[in-house]
Amino acid sequence: MYVSLNWLKQYVDVQGLSPEVLAEKITKSGIEVEGIESFGTYVDHLVVGHVEQCEQHPNADKLNVCQVNVGEEMLQIVCGASNVEAGQKVVVAKPGAVLPGNFKIKKAKLRGEISSGMICSLQELGVDAKYVPKEVEDGIFVLPEDSEVGADANTLLNLGDVILELGLTPNRSDALSMIGVAYEVAAILDTSLELPNEEVTIVNEKADDAISVDVQCPELTPYYGAFVVRNIQVGPSPLWMRNYLTASGIRPINNVVDITNYILLEYGQPLHAFDYDRLNSKQIVVRTAKEGEVLRTLDDEVRTLSSQQLVITNGEKPIALAGVMGGADSEVINDTTTILLESAYFQPQTVRTTSKHHGLRSESSARFEKGVDPDRVKRAGVRACQLLSMYAGGEVLDGVVEFDQLQYEEKEVTFSTSYMNRVLGTTISNEEIQDILRKLKFEYTLDGETFTVTVPTRRQDITIVEDMVEEVARMYGYDNLPLTLPEGSSQAGGLSRYQYVRRTVRNYLEGAGLSEAITYSLTTAERANLLTPVDFAEMQLQPVSLAMPMSEEHSHLRLSMLPELLASASYNVARKQQQVALYEIGSVYVSEESTLTKQPDELERLAGVLTGNWLTHLWQQEKKQVDFFVVKGIMEGLFATLDLSEQVCYRPAKIQGMHPGQTAEVVVNGSAIGHFGQVHPTLQKQYDLKQAFVFDLNLQKLIDQVSREENYTAIPRYPSVSRDIALVVDEVVQAGDLQQTIMETGQPLVQHAIVFDVYQGEHLQAGKKSIAFSLRYLDPTRTLTDEEVETAHNRILDQVKERYQAELRG
Amino acid sequence: MKERLLELKAEALEKVANAGGVKELQQVKVEYLGKKGPITEVLRGMGKLSAEQRPLIGQMANDVRSDISSAIESKQATLEEAALEKQLEEEKIDVTLPGRPIHAGGRHILTSILEEIEDLFIGMGFAVAEGPEVEQDYYNFEALNLPKGHPARDMQDSFYITEEILMRTHTSPVQARTMTNNEGKGPVKIICPGKVYRRDTDDATHSHQFTQVEGLLVDENVRMSDLKGVLNVFAKQMFGEDREIRLRPSFFPFTEPSVEMDISCKVCAGEGCSVCKGTGWIEILGGGMVHPNVLEMAGYDSKKYTGFAFGMGAERIAMLKYGIDDIRHFYTNDVRFLNQFHKA
After folding, report:
1. CATH number (domain holding residue B206)
2. Which ipTM did the prediction report?
3. B108 to chain A nearest CA, in Å?
4. Record's NCBIfam families (chain A) (predicted)?
5. Is there a contact between B292 and A494 if contact means CB atoms under 8 Å apart?
6. Which pLDDT score is estimated for A489?
């Protein structure tokens, strides 16, 4: 809502406050002033001039030399506008004036002719082009004939008016009118209010002889009033009215339309003027549309209607979409002489549905949707008739032809002062509350400390006690509320165990060199089916899709974070980033239903992507590309951090989208919880990536495995013994199996068996490989003897020989 | 003989003093103190001396030997020290060359902001509550005093999956769920971070996915002044002690009275600039006293219980705190963006 301060001052005294101070006060009381703009620019030495003479410039085809009377003198002005003519009243910037853009007007010679000033267009005075009437878009602005020569043109054109842009919350539809804003400002400033009178002179002819009103769906149209005004002369509306409309963001059209718009802004009540003679009937019938009925609306669109939509008809066919837009066939045109003025109360929901259906949001529908003030419906019509008779020569017929089943009563809200103070944390007195209610112009009774407030119909947002609490609080001033801290019972706050461990996981991964990424949960249909987690393998998954996505890009809920993480990696590689290591913790959305009847399961996962360099080439280190074992190292470190190393094992896995020979699944206590490895080269290519490695773990299952029991193991007091062995085995034998055998067989003395070398090549038989382990023997209770170590060692060698035909490498 | 010894001593000490290296010094040692050296020779001739003379000369020869020996030792130490110094000098490196890099990653800025806010409220006794991103219409709207057809539903066009299931448009359903689970008992004291979704076309200031964090306190006798006090603590800790806060009345369907909180603009210190659109204030969050309908629907007696709730967008806070100009940066995962926020 745009509020012209000059207009507002017609109703309420703003006590000489600067626009900024006033705006601050309004904002702090509950209606946010989102912007303060100036309407055009106030220009000194700007006066009304009368063009006495206008001749073509002797040396220029497109210029005119005008003699302009500006009151105390006659100025010769060279003017380039095509619409300048002798006899016009125009806006003259005299020498000394400075137009917007620091354009200084000086006496000058233009192609040999003296020019002492400038005849101005509205745009040149800083008025936004969208508010400039169409007919003078390309020329100077012509003032009404009765404008006084030499008078200040700023006042006439409302230049320098200040416009407050109000950001209204949905509850404050009362401020969708100048009167509503005036009530608010009067309350804030504690000042009186001057409202328009609604007196109208009528002619001795009954309106109900001219029209009848029949409402067929009273629940959707509880009130419909029709006024008839004849002898209308359609023409421009008075300049002040045009100025106010323009300042409010509405383009002036003609006096009839302007007056209905003026009332819409002043009262917040949308009106509609029909050309009475083009109704082709003497009746108004309000009903729901018939399925498939059509109406050509004012914007020249032919609209097909449905039975949920409310229409105004002439008894036969629709002439307007109720509350949204009128029809083109009954539109007021230049030779309209009699109008039928509609002032109605349409049920908010029906206007909302209709306007939404047709994508038609008008100033009118915006007000009906929120519910207009029932008390103002008829009064607004009367006020419009008054203006029509004043500014359009209209004669108002006697009476309003109406259908009236509008029942409304003022609501009562009861509260006590102590309740108010208990909720607000304040110590407001009865007197202070009384003072606030007086400023708001709310009537009330006070019994002890119990207030019973009668809420005026203009404030339909106030229905319950809490609404009155807000009303009192905002007038009292949120600034004046004390600062306290909650005093009630306390609880143990903090992170849950899961949340705490999740932070530990983040800390570890970041320490290991990965940066956290966040990708979108909504992805493409294709990506929703890509790289599905290994632990979901046995489910019949159905990717969940949105009913009405904004784009294909974000149409499906992800089942894995990897597809979008790979896209992020690809984005970085395309921008020459050589080291990409990202992880993400987020949900995937799992459902086996083809049509959802319940929410999908949301499972939190941990995924990541690494590509490019792990170590960059520097003066002191060789470049190293990320490989499988970099990722595995990160995984092992993670499980060690969570004290799960003992429970985890790795199995080669074949997973769609992954390299068949470089992928492992992670098995914890017997069940797979995720996988890691290289992305399948075909998929890598689709993402424009060379070698990309990923991991994807079920974070919830992982964290569930983390034990709270952490036992201390004493530092050994006796020395350990180290032995290295190199075992030659068939190349298909897995290091993990050998290691497991060593550890099992070596119990309880073997503390660890670390692979320190793997060899395959010319010094070995084809098809064989050598794996070297470093073993550590320890007995925490005493010093081991050589014999004991030797015995254990031989037992290990026997076992690996038996199980894997492993030979000691010579 | 005595003269000979003194002569030898002088001669040896001179050679020791002149020795330029360890090797040369060894030669001096062998030459004078060796078994075939001149002092040994002098001692061999002691048989010719008288009985009185013998011990004297013997003593003297020993003294000379010991003097030369300690001179050599001392010289040896000096030479070794010089040699070590020389060696160390040769081991000199360019300490300005860069070290071996330890590449640490870091949190996403949105996670950092959420954790900062979580920790701040944990300090005030709040727990962290999370809930589903795919929500039931009931918890997302109806339980929050937004019945079907409510005009305020327009404020947040949503991604529906079915008529009853949608991507949550705010984290408020977590509040409704937590209250419902608490079965009408107080206190409920939670902070709810999470992802939310709205039907918006992505551009510099809009994102179809973004991050919210909300707080809720429901108990007997919770006052609006408590909300103001808690938000004041939050704003000062989050944005700095020197920032002013301001509460303005506002409207949300789930709170009454409702507030919006502004903090004074950091860029212009309240003078008015382009960042704050000339107002000197920057909007940070919305909140209010929990609407009695919301309390009642979650099973709380609104005569007995009151509460406050507030919520804010993490992206907005990050954008204001760091001057980030495009919301899409948070989801593009450009490592040049991510790596900027690794400092503590």
Report:
1. 3.30.930.10
2. 0.87
3. 5
4. pheT_bact (TIGR00472), YtpR (NF045760)
5. no
6. 73
**Does residue B75 belong to any structural domain of this protein?**
yes
Q: Give the pLDDT score at A594.
A: 86
Closest C-alpha to A415, from A445, A375, A435, A392: A445
Which listed CATH number (3.30.1330.50, 1.10.10.10, 2.40.50.140, 3.40.50.300) goes with A46-159?
2.40.50.140
Place of tokens 């094992």: A649
Q: Which residues of A are annotated as a binding site for Mg(2+)?
A: 461, 467, 470-471
Last residue of a domain, one of B26, B61, B90: B90
Return the CATH fold of A497-705.
Answer: BirA Bifunctional Protein; domain 2 (3.30.930)
What's chain A's average pLDDT? 93
Residues A529-554: tens digit of each pLDDT: 999 999 998 888 988 999 989 899 99
| Confidence check: pLDDT of B43 > 70 | yes
- Which chain A residues are closer than 8 Å to B159 by Cβ? 522, 546-549
Q: A485 with A505: CB under 8 angstroms? A: no
Domains A46-159 and A721-808 share a fold: no
Of B165, B167, B233, the CB nearest to A596: B165
Does residue B251 belong to the interface with chain A, where contact is any CB pair within 8 Å? yes
For residue B309, pLDDT beyond 80: yes
For residue A14, give how far its alpha carbon lies from the nearest alpha carbon of chain B (Å): 20
Chain B 263-322, CB below 8 Å of chain A: which residues? 277-278, 289, 291-292, 306
Contact A582, A509 (CB under 8 A): no
For the residues B213-241, what does the mean pLDDT come to?
A: 93
Q: For testing the chain B interface, which of A496, A516, A520, A545 should be mutated: the one with the most B CBs within 10 Å?
A: A516
Quick one: pLDDT at residue B344? 52
Q: Between A and B, how many CB-CB pairs are < 8 A?
A: 260
Q: In this structure, is residue B42 part of a structural domain? A: yes
Cα–Cα distance, A43 to A160 (Å, whole number): 8
Q: For B150, which residue in chain A has the nearest alpha carbon?
A: A349
Nearest to A484 among B225, B334, B338 (CB): B225
| pLDDT over threshold 90, residue A621 | no
pTM of the entire predicted model: 0.85
Cα distances from A653 to residues A419, A662, A684, B128, in angstroms, run 67, 8, 18, 38
User: Could you give the CA distance from residue B211 to residue B110 in angstroms, rounded to a whole number?
Assistant: 8
In degrees to the nearest 10, what's the CA dihedral of B290, B294, B298, B302?
60
**With an 8 Å Cβ cutoff, are B209 and A522 in contact?**
yes
> What topology is assigned to A721-808 in CATH?
Alpha-Beta Plaits (3.30.70)
How far off is chain A from B237, nearest CA to CA, in Å? 15
A2-40+162-189 placed in CATH 3.30.56.10 = yes
Classified as helix, coil or strand, A213 is strand
In sequence order, what are the residues at sequence separation of 6 or more whose Cβ sits closer than 8 angstroms to the Cβ of residue B175? Answer: B144, B190, B192, B214, B216, B309
Q: What residues in A contact B165, CB-CB < 8 Å?
A: 596, 598-599
Chain mean position to CA A94: 48
Alpha-carbon distance A259 to A389, whole Å?
11
Which CATH number is A411-475's, of 3.40.50.10800, 3.30.56.10, 3.40.50.300, 3.40.50.410?
A: 3.30.56.10
Task: Give residue A763's pLDDT band: very low, low, confident or very high (50, 70, 90).
Answer: confident
Please tell me the distance from the alpha carbon of residue A648 to that of residue B48, in angstroms, as a whole number.
92
To probe the interface with B, which of A31, A164, A413, A466 has the most B CB atoms within 10 Å? A466
Domain spans of chain A, in order of start:
2-40+162-189, 46-159, 202-404, 411-475, 497-705, 721-808
> What is the pLDDT confidence band of residue A27, given thresholds at 50, 70 and 90?
very high
Who among B118, B161, B258 is closest to A546 (CB)? B161
Residue of B130, B185, B335 for testing the chain A interface, max A β-carbons within 10 Å: B335
pLDDT exceeds 90 at position A623: no
Beta-carbon contacts of residue A777 (< 8 Å; ≥ 6 apart): A720, A721, A722, A723, A746, A749, A750, A751, A784, A788, A789, A792, A793
> Do B215 and B261 belong to one domain?
yes
CA of B268 vs chain A CAs: smallest distance (Å): 17
Residue B42 structural domain: 2-90
Same-domain status, B49 and B183: no
Give the pLDDT of residue B154.
59
Assess if residue B96 is contained within a domain.
no
Instruction: Locate the chain A residue with the closest alpha carbon to B250.
Output: A30
Domain tally, chain B = 2
pLDDT higher than threshold 60 for residue A324: yes
* Interchain pair A545, B161: CB under 8 A: yes
